[in-house]
Inverse folding.
């Protein structure tokens, strides 16, 4: 006869009775030769009374009754029966343990958390092989009672015991760690929860809040941005929270762009809170004109002394003195919550700039009553009351007004009607043209004139353009140096210089930066410019390494994230084909040199008007073959690269050959900190073309636009008349041949995304607004120390309508060595749009023959 036994087990929140082979439990149940025929009592108490003199039978009966009660949903009665069964102490230890575990879970289900702990904790505390589910039960009970320190060791053991902890287990672990304010430990647990169920909206919000508690605003913003991309930010407060995190993370431009887009799409009301945050974002991003527009809108619906003061200060930055006076006057009319004395000083300055000397004196005299600004205000009063000084101030103001030739304001002196420029920096430009060029650059120059407006770029029709040995000759050769920056004066330029340039000026007394008048020659072909306009409606990033909706032109002319700026650089227009014949030089700290020569051939798919639509079909951005000679040990090295558009579908394909055999073999995708052949370890593969790596390993922050001194219109430094012996010095390039100009750049900061590791911990990129070319990179190591300066000297080839970075220089501050690539002076140079190539020419079988 097949013998069966009934055993109670627990699954989830219910008790179940299952039949298993009795041979498993011969030590736990009484085995009879035959089952007696016993009349079943009608109720539980009668059943208990029938066996009360037999502890073993009573325990089994009580256990069976517990199962019945659990099936009927009466957890409290089931627990009572199990407790009485345990009190008999008549069953084997194995069964007793199972019953205690089941009893603990019954107490958990009925909310009797202290009984859970009393029942299970003593046994589990010292049991190295304890069931993880029971450890979870005890931890959850402690947590429900607010005893999180007692819960922690139980839930830690439960998680460690499971190869794949359940979602419930991770939730309890995260809750315990958060209650104990162990935010650093909780972060990876909550991240695991989000990864296990990306549709859990609350999980995303909780993870962002956790990173805020850790003061890691970068990661908090990144999490909220991912939640936003998945449509999980539903309320205005959540959207504003994302914008606020971008502000705290030092990415105000991203905050402003997001808020603007939400307002335009009616996804966020243009109310007081939103417009105030928008103004703060644009102010922090130095987008003064947009900040002024936001504050004007804010003051229409909810004026306050603070917003009027903020508006007045911004208007003063723009030399809008009359408007600033009005705003500051309104701020003072209320006066609540603002520094009245400092506002009066600002008002005095605004009036002085309009030659309202009496009005300025009144403001400064009022300000002088305050101790904080008394000294400065009294100096202004003394200056304005002095006879000759007063006349000098009036004369200076007359000269200022005389230089203004557009607009319409009335001067307060001499009864003269004067005109003030309403759109500074747009002299000679049709005022009805859009604020941005087709590719996204600000059309206007700066009010001070140091950056000119964009007026159409440098075209082949301009008279006097010429070439020498195939290279463009400097069309601005008659420009004179405006100023020279040296180690003795660089500190006055502040944020106009990259940190790398500041370090070069500190290190080398002979290093200088000659500043010339700024020119804006870059103009892309009409098809590229028109495609850039269309892309504003269609281009998007599916993920950081996946682009869609564009195959020609600038994909993100109005970028909202750092990754979008970097994609603009990656796919900027470079012609349909390129053939580059260049030299490279490593200059070691002892002055020794290593020269190599490089040949590169590129067929562009993205940005190639002849291959429209092929990006989506082939998933290709470009095909590349490059070879470098005179590499130590191997001699000649060759690489074939197929660069994919969506690297989530397929990584870039790479084949290499080295040495005399010429054997081509495919290798896994390399990038990031793989040393670049020929650079002697001074450059990594992902630093090719200033940045050539994927985007997933870094957190990308958009710092906004900045006016900076950058290498630009670098024709002379590439002249065939300059020989390498003269150009390449022991510590740096011959800077007398380098040209620097004021230009606007996008500033993007990339910080390493844990847990991946890269020898480079952080990079700050400076990207030209006209060409979307990276001009400079400040490179930092893992410890946060400045390590390298990358510098790309840009010139514009007007025939090909391509902006070229040459040479590209890497200065290594640790090794006191430097590396230059794309040297053209003694090389054949760059040839655009002449290659008659097709994708099969770049296959590993054909490329070695085609590009010998």
């Amino acid at each position: 006869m097949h013998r069966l036994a009934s055993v109670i087990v627990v699954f989830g929140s219910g008790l179940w009775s299952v039949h298993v082979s009795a041979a498993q439990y011969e030590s736990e149940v009484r085995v009879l030769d035959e089952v007696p025929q016993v009349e079943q009592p009608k109720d539980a108490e009668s059943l208990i009374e029938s066996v009360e003199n037999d502890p073993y039978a009573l325990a089994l009966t009580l256990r069976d009754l517990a199962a019945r009660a659990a099936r009927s949903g009466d957890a409290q009665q089931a627990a009572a029966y199990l407790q009485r069964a345990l009190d008999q102490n008549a069953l084997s230890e194995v069964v007793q343990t199972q019953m205690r575990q089941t009893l603990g879970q019954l107490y958990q289900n009925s909310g009797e958390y202290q009984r859970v702990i009393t029942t299970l904790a003593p046994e589990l505390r010292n049991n190295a092989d304890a069931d993880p589910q029971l450890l979870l039960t005890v931890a959850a009970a402690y947590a429900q009672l607010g005893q999180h320190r007692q819960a922690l060791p139980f839930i830690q053991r439960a998680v460690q015991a499971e190869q794949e902890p359940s979602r419930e287990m991770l939730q309890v672990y995260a809750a315990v760690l958060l209650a104990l304010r162990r935010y650093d430990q909780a972060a990876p647990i909550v991240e695991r929860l989000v990864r296990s169920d990306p549709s859990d909206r609350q999980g995303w919000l909780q993870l962002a809040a956790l990173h805020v508690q850790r003061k890691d605003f970068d990661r908090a913003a990144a999490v909220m941005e991912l939640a936003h991309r998945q449509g999980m930010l539903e309320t205005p407060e959540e959207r504003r929270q994302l914008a606020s995190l971008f502000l705290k993370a030092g990415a105000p431009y991203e905050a402003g762009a997001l808020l603007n887009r939400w307002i335009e799409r009616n996804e966020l009301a243009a109310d007081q809170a939103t417009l105030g945050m928008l103004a703060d974002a644009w102010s922090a991003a130095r987008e003064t004109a947009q900040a002024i527009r936001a504050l004007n809108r804010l003051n229409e619906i909810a004026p306050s002394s603070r917003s009027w003061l903020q508006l007045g200060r911004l208007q003063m930055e723009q030399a809008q003195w009359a408007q600033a006076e009005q705003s500051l006057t309104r701020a003072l009319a209320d006066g609540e919550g603002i520094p009245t004395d400092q506002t009066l000083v600002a008002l005095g300055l605004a009036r002085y700039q309009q030659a309202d000397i009496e009005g300025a004196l009144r403001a400064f005299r009022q300000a002088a009553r305050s101790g904080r600004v008394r000294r400065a205000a009294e100096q202004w009063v003394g200056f304005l009351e002095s006879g000759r000084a007063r006349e000098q101030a009036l004369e200076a103001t007359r000269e200022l007004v005389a230089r203004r030739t557009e607009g319409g304001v009335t001067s307060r002196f001499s009864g003269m009607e004067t005109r003030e420029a309403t759109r500074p920096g747009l002299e000679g430009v049709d005022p009805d043209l859009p604020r941005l060029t087709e590719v996204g650059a600000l059309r206007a120059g700066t009010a001070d004139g140091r950056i000119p407006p964009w007026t159409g770029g440098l075209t082949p029709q301009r008279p006097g353009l010429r070439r020498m040995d195939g290279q463009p000759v400097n069309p601005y050769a008659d420009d004179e140096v405006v100023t020279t920056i040296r180690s003795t004066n660089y500190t006055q330029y502040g944020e106009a210089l990259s940190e790398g340039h500041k370090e070069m000026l500190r290190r080398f007394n002979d290093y200088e930066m000659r500043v010339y008048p700024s020119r804006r020659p870059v103009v892309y072909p009409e098809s590229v410019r028109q495609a850039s306009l269309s892309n504003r409606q269609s281009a998007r990033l599916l993920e950081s390494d996946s682009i869609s909706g564009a195959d020609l032109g600038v994909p993100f002319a109005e970028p909202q994230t750092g990754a979008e700026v970097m994609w603009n650089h990656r796919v900027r227009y470079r012609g349909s084909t390129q053939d580059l014949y260049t030299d490279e030089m490593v200059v070691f700290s002892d002055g020794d040199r290593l020269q190599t020569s490089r040949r590169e051939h590129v067929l562009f798919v993205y940005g190639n008007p002849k291959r429209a639509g092929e990006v989506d079909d082939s998933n290709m951005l470009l095909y590349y073959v490059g070879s470098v000679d005179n590499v130590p040990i191997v001699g000649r090295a060759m690489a074939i690269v197929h660069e994919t558009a969506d690297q989530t579908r397929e990584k870039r394909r790479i084949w290499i050959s080295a040495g005399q055999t010429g054997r081509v073999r495919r290798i896994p995708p390399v990038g990031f900190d793989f040393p670049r052949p020929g650079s002697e370890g001074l450059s990594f593969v992902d630093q090719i073309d200033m940045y050539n790596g994927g985007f997933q390993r870094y957190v990308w922050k958009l710092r906004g636009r900045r006016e900076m001194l950058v290498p630009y219109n670098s024709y002379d430094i590439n002249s065939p008349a300059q020989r390498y012996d003269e150009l390449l010095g022991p510590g740096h390039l011959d800077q007398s041949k380098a040209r620097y100009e004021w230009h606007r750049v996008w500033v993007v900061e990339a910080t390493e995304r844990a847990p991946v590791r890269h020898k480079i911990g952080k990079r700050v990129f400076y990207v030209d607004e006209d060409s979307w070319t990276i001009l400079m990179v400040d490179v930092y190591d893992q410890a946060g120390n400045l390590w390298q300066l990358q510098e790309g000297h840009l010139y514009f080839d007007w025939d090909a309508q391509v902006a070229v970075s040459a040479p590209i220089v890497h200065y290594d501050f640790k090794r006191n060595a430097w590396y230059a690539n794309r040297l053209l002076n003694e090389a054949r140079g760059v040839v655009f749009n002449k290659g008659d190539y097709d994708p099969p020419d770049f296959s590993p079988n054909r490329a070695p023959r085609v590009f010998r």
Summary: The CA atoms of residues 406 and 421 lie 4 Å apart. Confidence is low (pLDDT under 50) at residues 1-33, 35-41, 403-423. The first helix runs from residue 44 to 50.
